[in-house]
Amino acid sequence: MRRTRRTGTAPEMAVRRALHRRGLRYLVDVAPPGTNKRRRVDVLLRGARIALFVDGCFWHSCPEHGQLPKANREWWRVKLHGVVVRDRDTDVQLTAAGWRVVRVWEHEDPDDVADRVLALVTALPAKPPPG
Ligand SMILES: [Zn+2]
Fold this sequence. Notes:
Elements: H1 10-21, E1 27-30, E2 41-45, E3 50-55, H2 73-96, E4 100-105, H3 110-122
Parallel strand pairs: 3-4
Antiparallel strand pairs: 1-2, 2-3
Helix pairs in contact: 1-3
């Protein structure tokens, strides 16, 4: 049986490895402080305040691969729409809490994803010197 919330899927692991190879460090499957504890972020880059989600094509209704199962079609339509609605609400909540939300599809090339995240991180203004 497919579950709605999985952590450490193969595509997510590939993205995490690609980030790690670029020297990026992150937390996995956590809710940032001050946000809904039930909306966990796949990959959290704390310093850069980036919340990265690797969305599964089926559950998150990828425009290329998201297909409704033939059986119980209407039930699935409602169910999967609910996932998308919740995703958007999670984005709003995280953005309000000062996080930059980055969503990628599980079908995307993990190195491309990691390059995009790295570009975001390096585009940040330099931290002021200590003291
Ligand atoms: Zn897809």
